[in-house]
Amino acid sequence: MSPVPAIEIRSATIGYGGRPIVLAADLVVAEGERIAIVGPNGAGKSTLLRGIAGIAAPLQGEIRISGMAVRDLSREAIARRLAVVPQLATLPFSARVEEVVALGRLAHEDPLRGPGPADRAAVAAAMDRVGLGRLMGRDARELSLGERQLVLVAVAIAQASPIIILDEPTVHLDIRHQVEVMDLLVDLNVRDGTTVLAVLHDLNLAVRYFPRIVLVAGGRIHADGIPAEVLSASRIQEVFGVDPAILPMGPWSVARPAPAERARA
Amino acid sequence: MTSVPADVALRMEPGRRERVRELVRRHPRAVFGTAVAAVIAVSIVAVGLGSVGIAPGETIGIVVRRLVGLDLGVTWTPATEAIVWELRLPRVLTAATVGAGLAVAGATFQGLLRNPLADPYVLGTASGAGLGAAIALVLPIRIVFIEFGLVHAFAFVGALASVTVVYRLSRLSPWSGMTNIVLTGYAVGALLAAGLSMAMYLSGSSLRQIFAFILGGFEAASWNRLALAVPLVALGSLAILFRARALNGLLLGEEAAGHLGINVPRERALLLALGSLVTAAAVAVSGLIGFVGLVVPHVVRLTVGPNARAVVPLSAAVGAALLIAADLGARLLGDIPVGVVTALFGAPFFLLLLRRAQSGYEL
User: Fold this and answer.
1) Inter-chain CB pairs, A–B, below 8 Å
2) Interchain contact A180–B (C-beta under 8 A)
3) Which of A259, B168, B245, B262 has the highest Cβ tally under 10 A?
4) Is B189 helix (H, G, I), strand (E, B) or coil?
5) Which CA distances in Å does B9 have to B12, B21, B24, B351?
6) Which of B192, B190, B185, B181 is nearest to B129 (CA)?
7) Taking Cα atoms as reference points, which of B313, B332, B94, B52 lies closest to residue B216?
C-alpha cells in the first residue's frame, strides 16, 4: 500500500468569487518532502497556498491533505495538520512576543480553559528554536520587520503540525537571518519529518535549500522537479523575462540577471 | 477606580513600578478578584451616600436579610430599608450591569473589528437605539408592561435592527478584513442620526425626554427593568467569554486566525450578534452612555495584556465599578447626566494612562 500523500492537488482550479487564478493544477507532495514554490509576481503562488489551506475553495478539482478533502475538514482539523506562516501580520493592540507565539496553540488548547502546561512548553520550545528567547517580554509591535517574521515562524512551530507552509518567509530578513530560517526549515524537515512547502522569490535560496522546486507561471504549474531541471537558464528567461547568468558555485549554481542583456528584457 | 497598578505605580520608583506591572500582568486572576472586590466596595459606598446617609453596616445588614434571611444584629428604620432596597440598590446594580455590558461589548467589537477606536456603538447601535426611543416618545401611544414602556422596547429593537442592516449591507467576504463593515456602520449610523435629529426637531414637548435618553442615566432604575437586562447582559457576556479563543486568534488577522484553527466567518457572526445583544440590553435600560465601552477595554489591556480570556471578565468588573462610581458622582453633583461624568473624569484618567503605557497606541 502506498503511503497517503501529505498534500494532493488533482486538476484543481482555485480562485475567488468564481474568478479562477490557479488553473487545473496537479501537485502531489509526499510526507517529509521539502519543496520551494517559485514564480513571477501574480503567478498564483499565494492562491495555491490558500487553496491548500482551505481559505480559497477549489472551483473545480480536489485538494486533499493527509488523504482528506480540505473542504470537509474543520478549521481546527486543518490547523492541526497544517501550519501557515503568512508574509506579515499586524496587531491591533500591543502584545508580547510570547503572547503572540502562544496563538499557535489555539487549535490544541482547551477552548474554555486556555493553554495548559503542554501548550506552554510548546511555546517555550518554539521560541527557543527560532532564537526568540532574547525578545521575551518585548512588545511584538516594536520589533523590526525581520524579527516579526521570525515571530510568525515561531507561531507555526508552536502549532506543531506535520505540514508547514510558508509564504515568502525571508522577504524582510537580512542575509544572516535568511540563512538561519532556511537552516531551521531544513532542520524541521530532516529532524522532525515536517513536510515543508515554501513560496520563495529568491531563486538562489530555493536552489540551495530545496531538493524539489515547483515553478508556477500564469496560474499553471509550469515545471516541477529538481532545481537544475526546473530553473534552467532558458526557463528563467521564458518565465521571468530576464536573461540569467548561471554561475557555478561549488556544488550549486547561482542565477542572476546578466548585466549586459538587462536592457533587452 | 479599580486599576490598582496604575494608581499604585504613580507613587513608586521606576524599578518597583516595573516589578508591580510585571506581577499584575502575570496574575490576571488576582487582578480580577481585586476588581470584583472593588465592585462590591464601590456598591456599598454608592448605596450609602446621598441625601440620606446610610452606614455600610446597615446596607450589608439589609441586603443579607433580604437575600438569605439572616439577621446580622444590625438595626435600621423601615425608611432606611425602603431607600436601600427600593431606590439605591436597583440603581447601583443597574449601573453595574450596564457598565459591565458596555465594557464587554466594547472589548468584543475592538477585538472583532481589530480596531482600537471601536466601541459598542460603532455599528450604528447608538443611532438605531436613539431613533427607536425618539419614535416611541413622539408617538402618541403609551403602553407600559411591567415597567417596560415603548421607549425601552423601541430602543432595544432599534439597536439590533441597525446592526442587522449594517451586517447585511456590508457584504463581507468570508476572509476579508472588517473595514467594510466599519464604514457601512458609519454610513448607516449617519443616516439614522439624521432621522434622530429630525425626530428631535419635530418632537416639541418630548424633546427633553429624547435628550435625556441620548445622554443616558439611571434615574428610572427598578428591579423589574434590571431583571430583564441582567440575563441578557450576563448570558451574552458569558457566551462572549466562551469565544475568547476566536478573539485571540483575530489578533493576527482574519486569515491568520483561520490558519490557527478559528472558523472566522462563523465566530465573527456569533460575536457580532452577542456584542450587539449585550449593547442593546444595556442601552434599553440606561440610554446612551458613552466612553465606558471604549476606554475600559484599553485600560484592562494595558494592565493584563491582550488575552481575551482575561480582558473580557476584567472589563466587566472594571466597567461595573466605573459606572457605579460615575453614577454616584452624577447623583451627588445634583443629578447631572452620567455620561457627562464618565467623560469628565474618564478622559483625563485615560490620557494619563496612555502617557504611562509602555508602548504607544499606534494604529
Assistant:
1) 95
2) no
3) B262
4) helix
5) 5, 8, 11, 16
6) B192
7) B94
Asked if residues B50 and B331 have their Cβ atoms less than 8 Å apart, the reply is yes
What does each of the 363 residues of chain B score in pLDDT, given as a tens digit?
Answer: 344 444 444 444 557 777 887 888 888 889 999 999 999 999 999 988 887 888 888 888 888 888 887 777 777 888 888 888 888 899 999 999 999 999 999 999 999 998 888 889 888 888 888 888 888 887 766 666 555 577 888 888 988 999 999 988 887 777 777 888 888 998 998 999 898 888 888 877 778 888 888 888 888 888 888 888 999 999 999 999 999 999 999 999 999 999 999 999 999 999 999 999 999 999 888 888 888 998 999 989 988 999 999 999 999 999 999 999 999 999 888 888 888 888 887 788 778 777 766 544 443
* Model pTM score: 0.88
Verify whether the Cβ–Cβ distance B255 to A103 is below 8 Å: no
Q: Which three cell numbers stand for residue B336?
A: 447631572
Distance from CA of B145 to the nearest CA of A (A): 39
- The closest CB to that of B307, out of A17, A99, A139, belongs to A99
Handedness of CA B1, B35, B25, B113 (dihedral sign): negative
Residue A93 has its nearest CB partner, among B249, B259, B301, at B301
Distance CA A247, CA A257 (A): 11
Do A141 and B359 lie within an 8 Å CB cutoff?
Answer: yes
Among A82, A84, A103, the residue with its CB nearest the CB of B251 is: A103
Q: How far apart are the first and last CA of chain B?
A: 27
Map grid coordinates 490557527 to a residue: B260
Cβ–Cβ gap A109/B245 under 8 Å: yes
